[in-house]
User: Fold these one by one.
Assistant:
Number 1:
Amino acid sequence: MHDLGAQQDADLVQRYLGGEPTAVAMVDGWLARAASPFRRGLAAEWEDVLQEIRMEVVRLLQAGQFRGDSRLKTYLWQVSCHTCLDVLRRLRRRTFVGLESAEAVPAHGASPLDSVLQQEGGQAALRAFASLSPECRELWRMILSGLSYRDIGRQLGVSEGALRVRAHRCRKCATEAFRAATAASAGLREAEGAKDALR
């Protein structure tokens, strides 16, 4: 009986990682039900947290962390609850500043330094976007055009759950590429500054 359950779980893991719609829907349902007691505390963060849970589950399953010591549903339930608790702890550590305590922003235009930094940031964003895979670039184009995950999923022929996982991966790649492009720009500025100092 235990062997049968373990085989069913292993099969479900493979189908889920392969993006099979019925497997994704089943696992997503388990994850959402496990996280539901935390929904009120998470408030506006709810959808993002569900996405974070999905990404953590994919990471753990791909790394072979589920070893069958318990049933898959129990394991996923624990992952979901632990992720929610981690997010709640992060939210409690956030410091919010009221608008009344913020300094007034001057009415005149941006300073020359702000203009340069803004321009460099835009160039870094373009370099980061260009370094993404064609699949990610197309997905971003569809998201920015206002299409819902459901509409995009229909066009690409994938389930909404699998698409959300793919979007999260692309967001992570874009963030890393932007950081790398920004760091490269900063390094170039420092090198030029050092050259000017030697003249």
Number 2:
Amino acid sequence: MLQTEHDDIEKMKRGLSWIDLKESLNVDGCPICSTMLRSIDKYFKFLLYEYALDASVHKKMLASSGMCNTHSSLLKEAEAKLKSDGLNIAVLYETILKKEIKLLAIIEEKKLNERKDYFLGKTGPRDLILYKKEILSELIDKGLCPGCMHQKESESYCTHEMLRVSKDTEFRVKFEHDKVLLCRRHFLFLINEVEDKGTLDYFINTQKIKIDRLNTQLSGFIEKHDYRLKCGMTEEEKISWNKALEYFGSKKNIDRDGYNDLFGQ
């Protein structure tokens, strides 16, 4: 490792990003997923407590018509953790509801004008497909869910911090532990972002070892459901089905629309 790389790692390890990454490396499963989930939780609490009246927040919410399904649920959980009766969410969504009323009024006005023109003989009957397209063009969201936007930023930041410290011995000891396994999506994104072959090879080789181990554990879990063998099932085998599920699907509440694009997508 070059001295400049060593100095960069040592500087990072004195900061909050290393503390955050270490916390994720002590949790079962994908450390990037874990970091993202903590980040979105903090973001929503801060948004609700400090920025429910902020104009820039309302602008984003208007563009996306609020949060997506996943982040609506997380926003509701964050409101409950603040022991609020729902006032903060009500303030955010009142603005969106007013916009929705205006959009529906515009559509209704267009419909009335078309009926009037048709009655006066100015136009013929409208093509249904074109009519639906006009309506949808007014209603379709113009922006991305703010929760998904934050998720993208968090995913990128965490991945690059992991790459920065990837040659550190302490990081590698923690990362290579059996309980840590990058989900497939974040393994692909890390490969997408890596900038040197040595680091690329390290993560691919480590992932292969972990996936081979998981496959052995999963096979053992299945085989030992034979009543003659079940008593010999290890703890790792008992949870292998859940690890396989998280590997391909990521952790709960990581929304697919909040992933960053990969090369070639």
Number 3:
Amino acid sequence: MKNFPINHYFFTITPSPLIQVFVSNLKKQVRSIIGHEFQNEFSKTHISLFQYSEHHTDDILYDADWLIPALLPLDIFVNGLGIFKHGTNKTIYLQIEYKTPIADLAKALGGKDITPHITIARNLAADDFDKAWRHLQRVSYSNHFRCNNVTVLKREHHKWNRYLELPLSHRSSPRSVSSQTEQLFKTPFPRSVSPQTETTAKS
């Protein structure tokens, strides 16, 4: 029997270029302060929705390609820095206000409950965190952007590569993600697609 490859997908939201530059600059500051590489130092700025693995079929992409265009764009606001605790280690992240619409989007796509955030420095050891936080805790930053699409990454050659951009609807009447999807899930997904705690958190 032939063994089909396992495809790994990562559904994300890409922030605006201004926010990407801000996060990149903070990562450079952390590197300078602690003096060595850290987890996610070179990862692209993103908001994680969920990761998914399946054998060969790409079913999740067929479903998402049908669902996402029925959902409205999201206005996403970032404000200040926060901390996740992982035992003695800690993660520094950019906080997102009004988390519910993003969390609802992740669940609508098949993911679990999440605390939406933008990771700056993941899983820092206690000494490294103390050094970095002593400087970063004084940082004040707020901004916002409109999310018009979901970015799908695919794991290839041991790294995540951009694979698809799935656009949200351009309708103007506001509705919550949960109310938008309530009716959609009463019918089966069609199979068509065009290629193109705050104690622990992963990003």
Number 4:
Amino acid sequence: MANPHIAVIRLTESGSFDPDVRDTLIVGPGMGTSVNGLFTEMAQHLTHRFQVIGIDLPGHGQSPAHHEDVTIPEIAGTIAQLVKNRRQTGTIRGESKVYFAGLSLSGLVALELALEHADLFDGIAVMASAAKIGTAEAWNERSEMVLFSGTEAMVEMSAQLWVAENFHDHSKLDTQKQALANADDQSYAALCQALANYDASDRLGEITLPLFTVAGDQDQMCTVADAQQISSAVQNGSTAVIKNAAHLLPLEAPQQLAELLDSHLL
């Protein structure tokens, strides 16, 4: 089965023409969101060190719909090939270190990259995620609901979990709510199945890459304990907590998250 096609979005100017040869940070969003808008502000706080490249999940944002089954390893394989291609074209310069930071579902992709494609990366960040997110039963139910009612049915329930109660930037949140409403139903359902089938819990001890986890203290989906479990189980882990934040950390605390990534991705 072919790996899914994933759109690549430059969130800062290309490092191809950067005389300082900055490091490269690839960021991935959670299911139901798009990288543009979610990570844009955070990326601007990192331009002193990184060129920041975003990816959209299949059927989300600028990525085309994917109406076949898809797995977390297949998405990770696509990103690994992206890094190889960008090395060949010079977008990622030979001297540039490369990091991947994944949020929620993309946090699982980050773990898979650390397990199977570690040679391509200098460090990994897992943000608002877990070694196993939710239960297979719950994801199967959500998949069926979306195929029946569309992603629009998920918008308000998801938005309540995305941000903490003290988050009041409605325009930013509305952008992500619209991204969820616009997401391709079959692609979203396929990603639900990918979440149902992936569990890295028993393999965390194999990860030797430096790995940083971060969680919001009000996240009900992927908790502080989930982040701590990963960081304590891998061979070279560290962790942090962002207070008064829930699940969409780059939306809620873009500068604080940027500072944490800058200090932990060495």
